[in-house]
Amino acid sequence: MSTADVLHEGLPGVEPVHFRKTVAHFATGVAIVSCIDEGDPQPHGMTISSFTSISLDPPTILVSIKPGRMHRLISKEGWFGVSVLGEAQQGHSRYFAGDRGPAVPVFATRNRIPTLRDCLAWFECEVTSRIQVHDHTLFVARVMHCDALGGPPLLFFSSRYSAVQAL
Ligand SMILES: Cc1cc2nc3c(=O)[nH]c(=O)nc-3n(C[C@H](O)[C@H](O)[C@H](O)COP(=O)(O)OP(=O)(O)OC[C@H]3O[C@@H](n4cnc5c(N)ncnc54)[C@H](O)[C@@H]3O)c2cc1C
């Protein structure tokens, strides 16, 4: 039994729908996790907001992924890419969240794993540990290569897309 399980059983907690509406007030960026699929010439991508930097030395990030195709691919390959989206890339976010439009986003393999050709920043990551937390898995990964191309970010806030405004 994990620490998360103990806390879950010992406290009254809140309804998941109420939690979802409340936590939506925490603004995040939007990124695409990518992984190769041996049976498919195209890399598989998935939209996430759960990308977090957790250590500088060694450079380490985590992503929180629910069961599905991406979960299976990362578990099998042990490597994944992360591409941070810019404010004009709402279409990419929708595409990789399952709303497949006609324009197929283009990937580039910079070193080991494909990331989006056009993005604000990209990371190539090797899984170092995984932690099961209820209905999601935290994939903790070492960043092996990364770079920033720059530009204004796409934000996700209160369940809507948004952009940065100067204060
Ligand atoms: C702005 C934004 C941020 C998001 N952030 C995240 C995030 O941080 N983490 C996250 O996990 N998702 C996130 N999502 C949702 C995610 O992008 C979509 O659910 C996506 O379609 C999943 O891709 P997939 O290829 O892994 O799923 P697919 O395999 O195509 O599955 C589609 C759906 O079926 C469910 N499913 C498939 N197989 C199983 C199974 N064996 N058991 C249970 N359910 C199953 C999946 O959970 C998913 O909901 C976000 C979406 C948006 C728009």
UniProtKB/TrEMBL annotation:
Give the classification, highest ranks. Answer: Bacteria, Pseudomonadati, Pseudomonadota, Alphaproteobacteria, Rhodospirillales
Family annotation (SMART domains): Flavin_Reduct
InterPro entries in the cross-refs = Flavin_Rdtase-like_dom, NADH-dep_flavin_reductase, Split_barrel_FMN-bd, StyMonoxStyB
Instruction: Give the Gene Ontology MF terms in alphabetical order.
Output: FMN binding; riboflavin reductase (NADPH) activity
Q: Which organism is it from?
A: Zavarzinia compransoris
**Positions of the Flavin reductase like domain:** 23-163
The record's Pfam families line, in alphabetical order, gives:
Flavin_Reduct (PF01613)
Keywords from UniProt, A to Z, are: Oxidoreductase
Record's protein name: Flavin reductase
